[in-house]
Automatic annotation (TrEMBL):
InterPro entries: 4CMD/NDH-1_regulator (IPR052512), AhpD-like (IPR029032), CMD-like (IPR003779), Decarb_PcaC (IPR012788). Its EC number is 4.1.1.44. Residues 34-116 form the Carboxymuconolactone decarboxylase-like domain. It is an enzyme of class 4 (lyase). This is 4-carboxymuconolactone decarboxylase. It comes from the Bacteria. NCBIfam families: decarb_PcaC.
Amino acid sequence: MTNRFDTGMTVRRRVLGEAHVDRAEAAKTDFDAPFQEMITESAWGTVWASDRISDRERSMLTLALLAATGNFEEIPMHIRATARTGATKADVAEAFQHVAIYAGVPRANHALKLAKQTYAEMEQD
């Protein structure tokens, strides 16, 4: 493994939480191991590891980009990560308002629905 992988794993655990990463690692197979290594090095070891913007800002950007591009399946995971990144519910709502204006109301509306469901689940846990 590379230093970037080790850095990525540290950042990934900090942002997503130990339990999430442990589950993902346990589910990893020989088939998807190269993909997991690539995203750990690139997404977590490079992009999320950068200190040019805060984790809070990065959370808001990530959620907005996921919603704008219609990649809704990762929104709940990144909503849960806001508990560790410092992005508030108000921050997330603002990010999704930007999505509505620049990428479309239906995408922002669906993202808000997912966020509300995920926040409700988090409050029950």
